[in-house]
Amino acid sequence: MTAAEDVLSRPRQHRPRRRMRPPPINWTFAAGAAILLAAILLAIAPGAFAPYEPTKFDYKAILKGPSAAHLFGSDNFGRDILSRTIWAFRVDLQIALFGTLFPVLFGTLVGAAVGYAGGWAQVVFGRVVDAVVTFPFLVLIIAIVAVLGPGLINLYIAVSTVGWVFYARIVAAEVAVQRRLDYAAAGRVMGYSTARILLRHILPNAITAAIVYWMTDMALCILLGSSLGYLGLGAQPPTAEWGVLIADGKNYMRTAWWISIFPGLAIVITGLGFSLLGDGLADMLRPRR
Amino acid sequence: MPDAGYVLRRLLQMVPTLTFILVVTFVLVRLLPGDPLSAIAGDRVTDAQVAQARAAYGLDQPVLVQFGLYVKRVITGDLGRSLIAQVPVWTLVGQRLPPTLLLTGMATGIAVALAVPLAFISALRRGRASDLVIRGAFQIGLSMPVFYIGLVLLTVFSAQLRWFPVGGYGDGWGDRVYHLFLPALTLGVSLAAVLMRNLRSAIIDVLGAEYVDFARAKGLAPRIVLTRHVLRNALISTVALLGPTVGTLLGGAVITEAVFAIPGVGRLMIDSIYGRDYPVIQGLSLTLALVVSLVFLLTDLLQAALDPRTAG
């Protein structure tokens, strides 16, 4: 019997249909998402998790180290550091969101328009980007906050004035590549409007890098917000914000290290969450070749 | 060396950058609520003085003319007077710039010294435990605010162990380097994390390049291949990165100086903000932006010298 006959003589097996294999779990992404979900939960309902009021003074528990009653210890007013750190999730995640929202939206639109137009628009835009990138970002933000006055709203204004440029640069570069591809040409041949081709067809393919950068940017924004808070230019005391909390404890570092150390760990863990999520997203969204 | 045409083109690119810097620093003070004069002159002035100053600063002129006057002042080196110290801003900047430059220079040195060997180990042992540990450590370094690193180092090494002074800026070069070591380490760790991340992937790319295969195939010792071919090419990408990160570095220096009480421009900037000393804020923003664009220029030229392909 030949091999072919052998195959043919076999009873026809009903082979199970090949199902789509579920994509392998991206652990980087999962870890980042888990950290951030926990952070978001704390930000939404800090009262449910914080054992004490974040601003309540307790003169019987001044500068007490970590214990069962105060897991992260207490500060010079007897305020509970754990509760303050938890309440600060709300403020700092808000900084991450509000500090990047306008830059993402506006930067993406400008980048899409510039990248699609190409030619002179791109040359001029390139020069603008070069000039903005040259300006030391933090110095510019500090200068703007200095002029507008300290506080979170002015921090958002300052970050938004500069931040959109980075998104626009990323999106413009990607759109400039995509618009030359066949599917964009097909859209044009079919008589679709420019807006439709750009927004519905090109942008979804061009936005990946910007979204990944957004994750990094939110982490950077928290670093920036807490730095300004530390310097007294961001969130104002007694608002519980990580930078403000760390500044509260800076004079007690030798005797009561817990005041500054725990809020700092919250920054590191949240920042790690954003980086992991960004890296995981980059892996998942990267086109497979 | 890069050819004259490239240098010229690169210098021409400075024109829009410098214009932008001038416009931003000009607009900055104009964003102030009310008359910019009140910011320049302070509160304790009479009406006559206001009118006089108004004419002197050209504030009765159209905005474009005012901008022209501003540019003219800047070009002649007149950045105005500090409201608090009552000396020319330029004098203050001249006093405060050297500590900042030394700090950022040392931080860059420390960052390169940390990032290059670690990136090498990490790239050569990709996926193994040492790679994971190094990358994890730097990932954490990347998420840590500069002031936090500084505060921890200050507490441990200065206050507890007393290995280093708790801050300030010494006399004489050796003492200064000693005073600035911890601050530079603080600043260098963050920069090292950025450098290391990019350098690692650059090294991995270079390791897969054909000329490295060829160098190996012709029988060069692995050590020679690494130092002469891989290291050299990977360093080019490090130099390329130093330009864009210098702005971040100066920003970090502002914070580091606040933590370690270093009398540099960063500290001057913060003090001027608290004291609403707007001429100083304006002059400092201008100076720092100029420093950054100069470093950009230098790293671009250096890169072109190291790698003629980039000077296309």
First-to-last CA distance of chain A = 42 Å
CATH topology of the domain at 100-264 and 295-304 in chain B: MetI-like fold
The CATH superfamily of the domain at 100-264 and 295-304 in chain B is identified as MetI-like
Shape of chain A: flat
Strand content of chain B: under 5%
Radius of gyration of chain B: 24 Å
Highest CATH level, the class of the domain at 100-264 and 295-304 in chain B:
Mainly Alpha
Low-confidence stretches of chain A: none
What topology emerges from the helices and strands here?
The complex is a heterodimer of chains A (289) and B (312).
Chain A: H1 3-9, H2 27-44, H3 46-49, H4 81-117, H5 119-134, H6 137-148, H7 152-178, H8 182-189, H9 194-206, H10 208-231, H11 242-249, H12 258-285
Helix pairs in contact in A: 2-4, 2-12, 4-7, 4-10, 4-12, 5-7, 6-7, 7-9, 7-10, 8-9, 10-11, 10-12, 11-12
Chain B: H1 4-30, H2 36-41, H3 47-56, H4 63-75, H5 89-124, H6 129-143, H7 146-160, H8 173-207, H9 210-217, H10 222-260, H11 265-274, H12 278-306
Describe the model:
The complex is a heterodimer of chains A (289) and B (312). Chain A is mainly alpha-helical and 289 residues long. Helix content of chain A is 70%, strand content 0%. Chain A has 12 helices and no strands. Chain A has helices at residues 3-9, 27-44, 46-49, 81-117, 119-134, 137-148, 152-178, 182-189, 194-206, 208-231, 242-249, 258-285. In chain A, helix 5 runs antiparallel to helix 7. Chain A is flat, with a radius of gyration of 26 Å. With 312 residues, chain B is mainly α. Chain B has a domain at 100-264 and 295-304: MetI-like (MetI-like fold). In chain B, 78% of the residues lie in helices and 0% in strands. Chain B has 12 helices and no strands. Chain B has helices at residues 4-30, 36-41, 47-56, 63-75, 89-124, 129-143, 146-160, 173-207, 210-217, 222-260, 265-274, 278-306. The interface between A and B is large, with 45 and 50 residues.
